[in-house]
């Protein structure tokens, strides 16, 4: 009943994650109200992806060119590599302004259910970049089953190298309540307890 | 910290209704995974809007050309005009397969808080299309404060014409429960009671 072009737009919008028919339709009606300028700016930002977004050849992070801003920054400590699942985690870490090392983006985690094996991840490039300057590798995959599996796999893989391998701490989140925490978090919080 | 092109994409995605920074970022990361074909299809569907979607010159509905599919359909009863707020409502009505008249899309409702006055709506064209064949005008704006205001305004405006002016019924939705219904709905349901 809608014009073909409208139906096509609604269909395309459903390719966005978590967007179903209803939401796509809402988006499409909103888009129809955009003026020429807004519509062009939107389309242009999509066209710019292929030219303006690259993958850092060193760490796998999003980059403007061959290397990302962090890998190009000489003020960063190349001796410490923080291994994360995705480029999004880099942003989260950077927001703390407490970490001055570099990153390595795995682009996923080992998952037998999803059929993601170590070879599908950005792991070989991590091994390749280890040199005499490398002191510590911090494994910061998510505290999920897959994240833990991947962390254990990496720890095992990196064992032969004379490096300090660390894992980010698990425990109660700041501002959290004991009675709202799940058992696994509480167990991790107990295991990780420190002398006061 | 992200490449400029990525930030630009995230910014543009935030122009979609109800999409904030977090959702836009999620969309953007998903879009980065699209292959060339998918990306082109998406962009193309946006470019096709201006050429493929028109506004029906008679009723204001979305149309492939100057007139929408319903206005062009000679099997429809032109004597009955159902006045709705938006093109979306036409789809909802058409799904019932019970209505065989035509539509008129107001493109909004009178709202003093949003500064939408009768002149901002598609009302003059409704008056203009009334002729000797017009028998009934069904006012099907939403049962909200603005929808009711608009319905009353239209009823007053159409009074001089020798037409039957009707308002869609308000009451309990089918499958609804009395104890979940709000007071206003119950009042309307009582007012609209019929002999069994």
Describe the structure.
- The structure is a homodimer of 196-residue chains.
- Chain A has 196 residues and is α/β, with parallel strands linked by helices.
- The first copy, chain A, has two domains: 4-52, RecR Domain 1 (Helicase, Ruva Protein, domain 3, Orthogonal Bundle); 75-167, Dna Topoisomerase Vi A Subunit, Chain: A, domain 2 (3-Layer(aba) Sandwich).
- Helix content of chain A is 41%, strand content 13%.
- Chain A contains nine helices and six strands, in the order ααααββαβαβαβαβα.
- Chain A has helices spanning 4-13, 21-32, 36-47, 49-52, 69-72, 87-96, 124-129, 145-158, 183-191, and strands spanning 54-55, 62-63, 77-84, 101-105, 136-139, 164-167.
- In chain A, the strands form two sheets. Chain A has a four-stranded parallel beta sheet. Chain A has a two-stranded antiparallel ribbon with strand order 1-2.
- In chain A, strand 1 and strand 2 (62-63) form a beta hairpin.
- The first copy, chain A, is globular and about 65 Å long.
- The interface between A and B is large, with 49 and 49 residues.
């Amino acid at each position: 009943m809608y014009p073909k072009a409208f139906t096509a737009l609604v269909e395309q919008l459903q390719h966005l994650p978590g967007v179903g028919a209803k939401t796509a339709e809402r988006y499409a009606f909103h888009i129809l109200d955009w003026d020429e300028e807004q519509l062009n700016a939107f389309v242009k930002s999509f066209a710019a992806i292929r030219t303006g977004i690259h993958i850092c050849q060193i760490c796998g992070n999003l980059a403007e060119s061959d290397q990302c801003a962090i890998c190009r920054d000489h003020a960063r400590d190349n001796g410490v590599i923080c291994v994360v699942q995705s480029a999004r985690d880099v942003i989260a870490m950077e927001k703390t302004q407490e970490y001055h090392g570099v990153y390595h983006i795995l682009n996923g985690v080992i998952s037998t259910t999803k059929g993601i094996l170590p070879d599908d991840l950005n792991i070989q490039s991590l091994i390749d970049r280890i040199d005499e300057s490398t002191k510590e590798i911090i494994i910061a995959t998510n505290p999920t089953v897959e994240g833990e599996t991947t962390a254990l796999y990496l720890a095992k893989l990196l064992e032969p190298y004379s490096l300090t391998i660390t894992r980010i701490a698990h425990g109660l989140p700041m501002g959290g309540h004991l009675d709202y925490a799940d058992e696994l978090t509480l167990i991790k919080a107990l295991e990780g307890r420190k002398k006061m």
